[in-house]
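Hi everyone, sorry if this is the wrong subforum. Our group has a chain we'd like a structural model of before ordering constructs, and none of us has done structure prediction before. Sequence below.
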Amino acid sequence: MNTLLINPIAFSIGSLDIHWYGLILGSAALMGLLLAIWEGKRFNISQDFFMDLLLIGVPSAIVGARIYYVAFMWDDYKNNLIDIFKIWNGGIAIYGALIGAIIAALIYVRKKGYNFWRIADICAPSLLIGQIIGRWGNFVNQEAYGGPTTENFLRGNLHLPDFIVNQMNVQGVFHHPTFLYESLWNVVGILILLVLRRQKFLRAGELFMSYFIWYSIGRFFIEALRTDSLAFQGAEWLASLINGMWAPMTWFGFEQGYLAPSYGNVRISQMLAIVIVIAAVGIIIYRRKTVVDLPRYLDPIVSTKLQDAEAMPVAEVPGQAEQPVVNESSVTEKDHSDHQGEHGPKA
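Answer:
Right subforum, don't worry. Here is the predicted structure as tokens:
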């Protein structure tokens, strides 16, 4: 049976080829933005705030993803530094993208006077929706797939449609559609987050940490199916521990993808997934015990910059008596018309 491939080029404009991968990632970013804007309206946060956050976060994520990959594959780049910038040849990592985006968000959110944890909570479902859609770019490019499997497993055990099974036929060998496994795992995850964020017990930062916990658990089990994992040479007990934790997957007919010994014996994404789950749970417990008056997710979100703007006295105009600062909430309809334009923006 021949390999059936989807043309990675969606269409062309003159000599410019528009790839499905770019369109899919653009759609993922747009859906994430719309989801954040929708939730932000409940807290009276303008859509411009989230649009600017996206414009800053996306390039930061790409840079972070590339730096992360190059750092672990330095031997391949140290003698060809120009290749570091050839991102179109592949070589990015989702955890690096998250690191880059979080650093940029920390700076931007702080500049706007918002609490980082509150904004991160709003954006957590957006991260998942972006990954749900974005992984289909790997499907079109026929990349980031898992180890070899059988057509019967894909059709008979998993009951996958023809267009997925055929695309997973790489040069006559069928492979696990790890993009699909991760996408479906994140579909369940986003439903959980959407339910969680309406619960009164949820505190600031905990939805964001829940995203990391859910995603990392899925990534731990899915990563071992892949054949392109970044890895390092770890202690034998560590490799045995991780393999033992993954072993239940064999009950469902899965086998680990091949990992070249020259790469190492511990997959970095699996190791990092374990660390992130432990760290996220620890952060939730620590903040609950140490942060005084830890706000709940459903509490109002206020920018300190807007508060400062409202508290500023009106500048004195030469020749006029200084006008008192008036609390806008107590101004009567007549007073409002008299003092219209004297106050800063509302929080």
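For your construct planning: Confidence is low (pLDDT under 50) at residues 324-347. The first strand starts at residue 9 and ends at 13.
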